[in-house]
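Could you join me in thinking about how sequence relates to backbone shape in a protein? We need material for that, and I hope you will provide a protein of your own picking. Label the sequence line and the structure token line clearly, so we can match residues to local backbone shapes. Would you write everything just below, so we can both look at the same thing?
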Amino acid sequence: MNSSRSARSFFLTTRALRSDRSENRVLGIALLLLFFLGLLAWLTLSNLQLTVRSKSASLHVVEAVEAISSTVSARLQAVHIELGDQVHKGDLLLTLDSHMVDTDIASTEAILEALGEQVLALREESGASEAIYSNEAYRLKRKAETLRKQYRERQDIARLQAEILKRYESSAEQKLFSEIDALVAKKEQRQAIVTEDSTAFSLQEALMQLDAVEDQRREWNARHRRREAEVEESISAREERLRSLKESRERYFVRAAVNGKVSFLRDAKVGEYISAGDSLGDILPSSPLHVVAKYRAADTLGRVKRGQRGTISVIGFPRTRYGILEARVVEVGSAGADGNVTVHLALAESVASRIPLSHDLPVIVDITSERVTPWEYLLHILGVSLLPAV
């Protein structure tokens, strides 16, 4: 009786265990199916951001660094700046020895001063001579006018005497006047003619003298104008030379070509000989910073394009503490001989960082090249890994 009861209990227990195992199996299959469905949904519906990381990158100013150099060879006379100074365009940076040019400038200025005095003397001489010739011409004109008036009077007298003589001759035939009266009238007529001729000669002589004075005046004025023109031509040439010398002298003063900061300054001593074109320092222009990054051509070509977003972390400044900078791709170069592609990125205008950004600061740039599902990314990895074996 006891054995049959024990067998029945064993049977029931075995049966219950089999039922629990079946239920657990169904639950396990359901959970596994749910897991695979979730995985499939994640693989096909979620998005991954694929980024391309730079091999090397650094911050650069938009404008090129301006070299400090001289266009002439001379000894250094003075240095007016120090490393790190902020300078403005046109500020005096260095002074070179220009004593030879200064000597030429002083000599040319002295010659110009002498030529200017010569021009003044010529003008004074011209004024004095013009006054003399004017006075002489005026005197001769007055004399000619007086003689011309006398000549007309003598002509009138000669005509009158001719008429009187004619009247005497006709009256002498009629015995109205004596022959003595006729002779006197003839003598007076001849005297009137002589006086008229004399006055005409004096008038002609005065007019010839006036013409001679005018000729001398014109000749002297022409000669004087030639002399003055020669001096003025010499002055123009000297003034042109003076302008050229002053322009040359300005080259001995090395000035800043741009606004910026003196980022490098050669340790040149006063009195040291500086050759034309020697680099004496650099000016870092005061312009916005941008990023220049190098990428592997295989990772970049066809994937990195203008307008894509990039994140920048500065080497030596942990992003967990200092954060990241944002930028946009503005230019993608072509592959170089070294197999790298140069990419230029512009920093976001509203960028605010606790990091002191400066030229040549090394950074790491990650560019978001595309967004894909995990499934597409997995296929891409499998394709890349299998491609060499195909």
